[in-house]
Write a structure and sequence with these properties.
Elements: H1 2-13, H2 18-33, E1 37-44, E2 49-56, E3 67-69, H3 73-81, E4 85-87, E5 109-117, E6 120-129, H4 137-160, E7 174-177, E8 179-182, E9 185-192, H5 210-235, H6 241-253, H7 259-268, H8 273-290, H9 294-319, E10 328-332, H10 337-342, E11 348-353, H11 361-369, E12 373-375, E13 389-393, E14 398-401, H12 405-425, E15 443-447, H13 451-458, E16 464-468, H14 470-474, H15 482-496, E17 501-504, H16 531-536, H17 538-551, E18 558-562, H18 568-587, E19 597-601, H19 604-607, H20 610-614, E20 619-622, H21 624-632, H22 650-665, E21 669-672, H23 680-689, E22 693-696, H24 698-708, H25 713-723, H26 729-742, H27 754-757
Helix pairs in contact: 1-2, 1-4, 2-4, 5-6, 5-7, 5-9, 7-8, 8-9, 15-17, 17-18, 23-24, 23-25
Length: 758
């Protein structure tokens, strides 16, 4: 049964469109289960009805014609109950609904299973038989497994707008749910980017010059053939004759009468060369993987390797020829800073990533750049979206492909209003963040690049709550020297002087790795990261602290912050090294003032030791991103559980309140440098809790200031008191938004988009 399932999945994955995939499924399932009928009914949420979309056994003419309401018939009952229904004689069931067009009156036994994706019913798969019998548990389990596979296929079709294709409605707007990455709305053209030499990530695309595409392909094939010949010659004295013969096989496979010819034919049919290569290689890989002979099955890996080699040459040429339209929406399976850097900033309108969440570093970078972003679009068939018009709603985490005229008109109004509102915020950039009842709250910024500095100062930042010192490490191929670090830190300290600059010591591990200092672990977020790495490598820590101290000479605006603290012992050990570095710099004759030292509260262990930690340091800063992740046991980079990552969870809010109260009992200040600080909605709660400073990306600073300047601290505390009595994160967020709307703060909440989202 497992082999049968694998074969069906492979065939479905290779189908050209949804209709072809459905037909493959109903044919193969009927044959595998030896039943008389297999059918798929798709559910249209807007129409609240099921439509017979594919069948093997019922009248073919009923496809697209036979329909049932959401609660009608046995199919409707399967969907409503969201579980299988297995009946010996369907016609005797009180919910049985006969549809004349199908010709199903001769079938008695019925087994229907729901097709569910992300808790949403997409359809129902049914098998029927003339014989009166109940399908056994193995048959039911097989059909349930098939429906789970089909769910992903249908979700992909929904995203590309090919689900409900009719002559009168050739394309339908597709809405796709992800996670809000960076606020704002973008309307533009999708440009799909992929990692190098990854065949599985090559998007579908049409070429516009046949001769040029064939020439490019020919050049790549010849380059790989030459490479293979050189490799064979180098190894000729080291390999036995039979192994050398494999190189001849590979060369023949790349010949113009073999794979080369098939790829050219795909190009002549309209596909660009990388897409044609992927199609041909995938087909041959599937054929090899189906073979019973183990040796021949292993050859699938060889075919993949050949494909990757050819693709790498194609990508070298294509990279220089990528055309970015003025309204580029960059789409990728996993966005990286390098991908963002390749696009001219003035042409980059929006971002969509299949992987990652709203708190992954790609999203944090997007917020810093002020680019509307949706993360964690896990079922988006991104390879098919190149050139499509998209709407990216970074407020609600939604992506629309092939939007209708009505939807476009609505979002164009939203974009215009957002631009008008944002431009109006410039008038308050030089004003203090002061509530109407004169409560003062300093707004600081999170930085990592010098490009952040100008933007931060223009928006009236009063200091730096988090300078990510790992950025210079990530941009190099080796550890930066003490002198290099000193120059980098000096630029940052001078730019903000006399404002304070909080420099976090090297924070690598988790989802931040150095190519020259790799950390490979099964659970990196629970492993060797942050202060654990630098305490184990004092030579790295001491060099960095000395560079910070030297950079601060004459400015005296440095603050040092320690990441991932879990115990008093770690703080004591780190303080010993910091004092040692300070003594060493003094011995060089430099008049360095000992800077304030603080710790980050970002793991549950630290929450319960705040008073003990506060006695050892000068300040505390809450890293709400990691704290939320660890409190809720949710990987903040995993889009599958992104909906569980919620900063408004009661446990998170209670932890934040406890940290502030305990720190103040020891007379120490508390700031928040996590992404929650840049959310105008959350900022109201944080100020009410007594947080002393908020540090955020520069892109959010003016929105937060605008909101806090319009609500009294007394009202904020009243709202907080009510919120802390609630036990549901979604209810908390909704109640908070409603309360702020009543206070006239609706402009910063992104509410207007929801007309089409709900």
């Amino acid at each position: 049964m497992l082999n049968t399932l694998r074969t069906i999945v492979q065939e479905v994955s290779a189908a050209s469109d949804l209709r072809a995939a459905l037909q493959i499924i109903v044919q193969r399932v009927r044959d595998s289960m030896h039943t008389d009928v297999c059918s798929v009914y798709l559910f249209d949420l807007e129409q609240s009805e099921y439509t017979l979309s594919a069948t093997e056994g019922l009248n073919p003419s009923a496809v697209g014609v036979a329909k049932m309401t959401q609660s009608e018939g046995l199919v409707g009952q399967v969907g409503l109950r969201e579980e299988p229904i297995n009946i010996e004689d369907a016609a005797t069931h009180p919910k049985f609904h006969y549809i004349k067009e199908t010709g199903e009156e001769r079938y008695h036994s019925f087994l229907g299973v729901p097709i569910i994706h992300h808790r949403q019913i997409l359809g129902v798969m049914v098998v029927q038989q003339k014989e009166r019998r109940r399908f056994d548990e193995h048959e039911e389990a097989f059909l349930v497994t098939m429906s789970a596979q089909l769910a992903g296929v249908i979700a992909h079709a929904e995203a590309t707008g090919s689900l409900h294709v009719t002559p009168n409605n050739p394309r339908k707007t597709a809405r796709f749910q992800g996670t809000a990455g960076a606020t704002g709305v973008a309307i533009g053209e999708a440009v799909v980017v992929v990692p190098p030499a990854d065949l599985g990530a090559v998007p579908d695309r049409q070429h516009d010059d046949l001769d040029a595409e064939l020439a490019l392909l020919g050049k790549a094939l010849e380059a790989v053939r030459s490479e293979m010949k050189e490799t064979a010659d180098k190894l000729s004295d080291l390999l036995p004759v039979e192994e050398q013969a494999l190189f001849d096989v590979y060369l023949r496979m790349l010949d113009d009468n073999a794979l080369g010819l098939e790829i050219r034919n795909q190009v002549r049919a309209g596909s660009w060369a990388p897409g044609a290569l992927r199609t041909v290689i995938d087909e041959h890989v599937r054929n090899f993987e189906k073979m019973e002979d183990a040796y021949l099955r292993e050859r699938a890996a060889d075919v993949k390797d050949l494909g990757r080699r050819v693709l790498s040459y194609l990508q070298k040429e294509n990279k220089n020829n990528i055309c970015y339209p003025d309204n580029t929406i960059l789409v990728s399976e996993e966005l990286t800073p390098v991908m963002l850097a390749d696009v001219p900033r003035e042409q980059l309108t929006g971002l969509v990533s299949v992987q990652g969440s709203g708190n992954s570093h790609a999203a944090i970078l997007a917020r810093a750049m002020g680019i509307p972003t949706v993360m964690g679009a896990v079922d988006l068939p991104f390879l098919k979206l190149s050139g499509h018009q998209l709407i990216v709603d970074g407020n609600l985490g939604l992506v629309y492909s092939t939007p209708s005229a009505e939807l476009l008109e609505h979002y164009q109004v939203v974009v215009e209003e957002e631009q008008e509102f944002t431009e109006g915020l410039e008038t308050i950039s030089g004003l203090p963040c002061l509530t109407p009842d004169d409560y003062r709250i300093p707004l600081w910024v999170n930085t990592g690049l010098m490009t952040d500095t100008v933007r931060s100062l223009d928006r009236g930042a009063e200091g730096v709550g988090l300078y990510r010192t790992e950025v210079p490490f990530l941009l190099r191929e080796r550890f930066p020297s003490e002198l290099e670090q000193e120059k980098i830190y000096r630029h940052q300290l001078e730019a903000f002087a006399p404002r304070p600059v909080t420099m976090r010591t090297l924070d690598i591990g988790g989802d931040k790795s150095l190519s020259y200092f790799p950390i490979e672990e099964d659970n990196p977020f629970l492993g060797w990261r942050g202060i654990r790495v630098t305490l184990d490598h004092p030579e790295i820590f001491l060099v960095q602290v000395r560079a910070m101290l030297k950079a601060s000479v004459g400015l005296d605006n440095l603050r040092i912050m320690l990441p991932m603290i879990t115990s008093v012992f770690e703080v004591e050990e780190a303080m010993h090294l910091i004092h040692r570095a300070h003594t060493e710099v003094l011995s060089e004759g430099l008049p360095v003032v000992m800077p304030p030292v603080g710790v980050m509260i970002e793991v549950p262990a630290a929450v319960y030791q705040v008073r003990e930690l506060a006695k050892l340091v000068d300040f505390l800063s809450i890293g709400s991103n990691d704290l939320t992740q660890y409190l809720l046991a949710v990987d903040r980079n995993n889009p599958r559980v992104a909906d569980l990552y919620n900063s408004y969870h009661p446990a998170v809010l209670q932890a934040l309140q406890k940290v502030v109260e305990d720190a103040h009992k020891e007379g120490k200040t508390v700031s928040i440098c996590g992404e929650i600080a840049g959310d105008p909605v959350a900022a109201v709660l944080l100020v009410a809790m007594g947080v002393d400073m908020l540090s955020m990306s520069a892109a959010n600073l003016l929105k937060v200031k605008w909101a806090l300047r319009r609500i009294t601290i007394q009202k904020a505390r009243e709202i907080l008191a009510e919120i802390l009595t609630m036990d549901n994160a979604q209810v908390i967020r909704s109640s908070l938004e409603l309360a702020l709307c009543r206070e006239g703060l609706g402009k910063v909440l992104g509410i207007k988009s929801r007309r089409f989202a709900d």
